[in-house]
UniProtKB/TrEMBL annotation:
SMART domains: alkPPc. GO terms for molecular function: alkaline phosphatase activity; metal ion binding. This is Alkaline phosphatase. Zn(2+) 1 binds at H353. It comes from Desulfoluna spongiiphila. It comes from the Bacteria. Keywords: Magnesium, Metal-binding, Phosphoprotein, Signal, Zinc.
């Protein structure tokens, strides 16, 4: 069966995200993660001995032992090697191990893409996609099995195959999916006439959708090209077939070769399933398809049936499967050296865990596998049919990858090094953790983050406003005059699209205010924006130049927020969710797509009062906790100007809400639209109540040299247990009284707990904040109040040290509370929030 589906883009949505969203020029283009599922050092040795040669990856300079334990375990070398069999206690599984590599966070066995708190976490496929790269997964077992699923899916159980497959096909960022799990064939390539198993491909209806004349429509608007004939896989690998978005399903029920008939205890290449491609052909075919993306690709390749053979203690099939995996690695290395280079390509070869507890003798002793000569089965004995916590080998190749991992080494396992020194002295015993691979891959894509502080200037602006072109009351000239009067450096009119276009209009459509002759300024950088307005939520799109709004308008009429995000990015525009937790109007009711750029966390119109418990901050924190570095921005959402207000309600609204309330401050290299949007995307943003009000700066010293080079939006890669120093400065504070004495007093842990729980003595706290020069500076760590200080008498700086979480991700952000300028109105409308920062991130994914 061969179905070449549609490859056009739905509603004009771009197939590739380019321009503003491309990875930095210094970042490499390709990341290839190759996982031999269930491989330990015994597997590597046995295969080498039988074949009489070494695998190509064994020549890599970067070699590490790697721990694989789950969120329920730990690794202590002295304890593990003290008693034979100790490594079998509480091992991980493929789901938790793949998740650890894909999200950088330990989780429970059986779970996919979720933290131990059952929260969906941004994974490697999503990370690569938001960097503009194509993505793919290839496996020798079912396409929705634990390891490929762990790279892309979010599910409470690895056994929910139908849900996982459907998510991969319809809701993921994947461009290539290849593997087994064909419902129409058995493991010998024979047609199945009865008892067809559709669950690995999402169920019978999904399979029919994949294989019909159109193909299944994916999240990005393109259609999957289905192939299952061996000749097509081979043609794709050779570059003679172009198939766009590829779903390649080998004609095998569960595995390419391991599950076929024959004696599994001997190596026998003569009775192979002739209907399926090799893992090498699938890997090269995936690379050919993904290479069409000029920005590069992320590819995970799994030799999944190594684990199946080890579970069944099949010596012959284990060597066959590992040999097939080794051959695929050799093809990848050859492709890199012919078509790319090691400056732009990172290759990681490793395992998710050891399986079978494979040693060289039937005695319960740590004796390595023995060499009986090429073509002969090595001296090897399986001591278990389950996984173990024995560290697995990890090989890396790519310029700078080794030094990066050297900085993440957790410790030394001298027992591991001594055991295998005779086979490969390149292993020093230094061990990393499987979560470190995510940090390496993410940093490889994003490029080195050396810290932004000191490389730019602060510019202030308003990102949300209206005029007569939608439901505002003032002409464009008057609106811009107001913005310039506030001395805003940048400004954007975001008219409601529903006020400009007809729902029956097929397009093309162009926002009317962009052509308004008065939409010009010599003082203020003007962006081009629209408010995407639906009954399930609003969002802004901002660009530096007019763009085709038609895809977003079609997405509006179709209530398709994902298509709207893609449409914005197609026009090199940012996509920002507006007032997501609005009380009076229009909260965000769609799912939050991973590609959303920013969230409006401070909006004047739709949150009264602006206290954390009532505002959009919990919504924002929920996305940050998933590993999504979505920038928090503000927007006044001003509709009315006083001089054009004709009725009492309009006059009241005009008096209460004005341009620059709140103000979004952007730290950018220069005062240009491109620089401002780039900094908005990168999170170098702080918010204040007004253009001339207090602002907070949050910076960090990453290396202890006394220079705070790390700014809001920056991402630090830190080893566990390393302390960071932070500094918070209040800019433009209220002047202190004549006899004021600068004071900084930290709240006690008891009072901080009460503050977080809402049980603090509020009258007493408000009494402390009664003075204009008195503030409460608070720091939130992963969305939870962490430290707080009363700052008064002209004091403007707070410093503190902290150790981020030993595993996983940590972020810090700060808030400033004080006395409202106009007690009656502002206390009612805005509470006491004066300023909010974006986070500094530690061990987060690339944007």
């Amino acid at each position: 069966m061969r179905i070449l589906g549609k490859q056009g883009c739905f509603w004009g949505i771009a197939c590739l995200v380019i321009g503003l969203f491309a990875p930095p020029a210094s970042a490499a283009k390709h990341v290839i993660l190759m996982i031999s599922d269930g491989q330990g050092m015994g597997t590597v040795m046995a295969t080498d001995f039988y074949n009489g040669n070494r695998a190509v990856y064994e020549s890599f300079e970067g070699k590490y032992a790697m721990t694989t334990y789950s969120a329920l375990g730990t690794y202590e070398p002295e304890l593990g090697w003290r008693l034979f069999g100790s490594h079998l206690l509480n091992p991980t599984d493929s789901a938790a191990a793949a998740t650890a590599m894909a999200i950088g966070v330990k989780t429970y066995p059986g779970m996919l893409g979720k933290s131990p708190l059952f929260m969906d976490m941004k994974n490697m496929v999503e990370t690569a996609s938001t960097q503009g790269l194509a993505t793919g997964v290839v496996t020798s077992v079912e396409v929705s099995h634990a390891t490929p699923a762990g790279m892309v899916a979010h599910n409470i159980s690895r056994n929910n195959y139908e849900q996982i497959a459907a998510q991969m096909i319809y809701d993921s960022d994947l461009d290539v999916i290849m593997g087994a799990g064909h419902p129409m064939f058995d493991n010998n390539g024979n047609p199945r006439l009865q008892e067809r198993e559709y669950r690995y491909v999402g169920g019978e209806e999904v399979f029919e959708d994949l294989t019909d004349s159109d193909g299944a429509r994916a999240k990005d608007g393109r259609y999957w090209s289905f192939m299952d004939e061996r000749a097509d896989f081979e043609a794709l690998a050779q570059g003679t077939l172009s198939a766009g978005k590829v779903f390649g399903l080998a004609r095998a029920a569960t595995t390419l070769q391991q599950g076929r008939e024959g004696n599994p205890q001997v190596v026998n290449e003569s009775n192979r399933n002739p209907s399926v491609p090799s893992l090498s052909d699938m890997t090269l075919g995936a690379i050919q398809a993904l290479s069409d993306d000029p920005d590069g690709f992320f590819l995970m390749v799994e030799g999944g049936a190594v684990d199946w053979a080890n579970h069944s203690n099949e010596k012959g099939r284990m060597i066959e499967e590992q040999s097939a995996f080794n051959a695929a690695v050799s093809e990848v290395v050859a492709w890199v050296e012919e078509n790319s280079n090691w400056e732009e390509t990172l290759l990681i070869v490793t395992a998710d865990h050891e399986c079978g507890y494979l040693w060289g003798t039937d005695e319960r002793a740590f004796v390595p596998v023995g060499d009986n000569g090429a073509g002969n089965l090595p001296a090897m004995v399986f001591h278990a049919d389950t996984h173990s916590n024995v560290p697995v080998p990890c090989y890396v190749k790519g310029t700078g990858a080794g030094p990066f991992l050297d900085g993440l080494v957790d410790g030394t396992d001298p027992f591991f090094a001594e055991l295998f020194s005779g086979f490969d002295p390149g292993f020093s015993g230094a061990f990393i953790d499987n979560t470190d691979l995510f940090l390496l891959m993410s940093r490889w894509l994003e490029g080195e983050d050396e810290g932004t502080n000191g490389a730019g200037h602060w510019f202030k602006g308003d990102l949300h406003a209206h005029s007569l072109h939608s439901d505002g009351n003032a002409p464009v000239a008057a609106v811009l005059n107001s913005a310039e009067h506030k001395e805003l450096d940048f400004f954007v009119l975001t008219e409601h699209d529903t006020d400009m276009f007809d729902s029956e209009d097929p397009g093309p459509v162009m926002p009317t205010h962009w052509d308004d002759p008065d939409y010009t300024s010599e003082e203020t950088v003007l962006l081009y924006g629209v408010e995407w307005t639906t009954g399930k939520g609003h969002a802004n799109a901002w660009a530096t130049a007019p763009f085709d709004y038609t895809p977003l308008w079609h997405a509006n009429t179709g209530l398709d927020a994902v298509a709207a995000v893609y449409g914005a990015h197609d026009g090199d525009a940012l996509f920002s969710i507006n007032h997501p937790s609005a009380i009076f109007c229009c909260p965000w009711e769609y799912d939050v797509d991973n590609a959303v750029d920013t969230i409006e966390i401070w909006n004047s119109m739709y949150r009264i009062p602006n206290l954390n418990g009532w505002s959009s901050h919990p919504f924002w924190d929920a996305e940050l906790l998933k590993g999504r570095r979505m920038t928090g921005v503000g927007g006044s959402d001003t509709h009315k100007l006083a001089e054009y207000a004709s009725d009492p309600f309009a006059k009241i609204e005009a008096a209460l809400f004005g341009h620059g309330n709140p103000t979004t401050w952007v730290y950018a290299e220069e005062k240009t639209g491109d620089a401002i949007l780039r900094s908005l995307k990168n999170g170098h943003v702080s918010l204040s109540y007004a253009p001339d009000a207090e602002r907070l700066d949050l910076v960090a010293d990453r290396d202890g040299d006394g220079y705070f080079e790390t700014l809001m939006g920056d991402n630090l890669i830190q080893t566990p247990g390393r302390e960071l120093s932070f500094q918070i400065d209040i800019r433009n504070p209220a002047p202190p009284g004549w006899f004021a004495v600068p004071r900084v007093k930290e709240l006690t842990p008891e009072n901080l707990v009460k503050l977080a729980a809402g049980e603090v003595d509020l009258p007493a706290l408000l009494g402390l904040l009664a003075g204009k020069d008195t503030y409460l500076v608070g720091v939130l760590k992963n969305g939870i109040p962490h430290r707080a200080w009363i700052v008064s008498g002209g004091a403007t700086r707070v410093t503190f040290d902290d150790v981020p979480a030993s595993r996983g991700r940590t972020y810090y952000r700060a808030e400033l509370m004080g006395t409202p300028d106009l007690l009656l109105f502002q206390r009612l409308l805005y509470g006491r929030v004066k300023a909010v920062t974006n986070p500094i991130y530690v061990n987060f994914p690339a944007r």
